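#lab-general

N.A. 3:47 PM
ok so I finally got the sequence cleaned up, no stray characters, all 224 residues accounted for. can someone with queue access submit it? mine expired

B.Y. 3:52 PM
send it over

N.A. 3:53 PM
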Amino acid sequence: MIFTEDTLQKLENNSEIKKKYAGAGSWGQNKIVYLPTLLGVFSAAGSYFMYELSKMDSSYSIYIYACLFVAVICIIAVVQIQKNAKKKVLATIENVPVCIAKKVYGNDNAEIYYGIYTTGNRRHDIDFIESIADKIFNIEFETDEKIKRKIRNMFGEKFAAPNALSILLPTAFTEGENVYQGQFRFQHIGQEMKNIISNNNDQFIVVAFNYTNAQQLRHADLVI
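B.Y. 4:20 PM
back already:
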């Protein structure tokens, strides 16, 4: 299967396919969710720390329960916030864009790769995304030293995690188009999908719920 603008447009018009990614795509839509998430993580870690201390002094036991109580409350809060966020995403699912993306650099052992995509008017423009990737591959020819350092830093060997928030490339480097760098895991997409991506010159397809949250399209959803 070779990706074309027609392929991307058909997928973008298929709300049923996009709905399958709404759960993951709604993460972070409401920024408040990060507060109970972080608090819950610290509370869970705190309960373990207090448990270790309680082995030497039983008076610390009460703090274990306090930490666990906070962690449970945080979990409930996250679930409720995400439930509402997903509901809002589903209400506007028709407006969610499907975009061509391009694998750039990555870790072949972990199968985590940097990818680039745009959610703007050129989101289906395969030649455009290829041209930006080509500029990244040939960054040594960039005459603007500030941009050169920025791109080299963005696509260095420091990987955070797949599905980390995407980052905007300098628009002076991308012909004024908002092009984003995201991190994507290819380990679990299956060999068929890997073959398709290889046949498409390392291009793949993402469902972009916002510019920082792009979900990789699975092989099963390419049947349109």
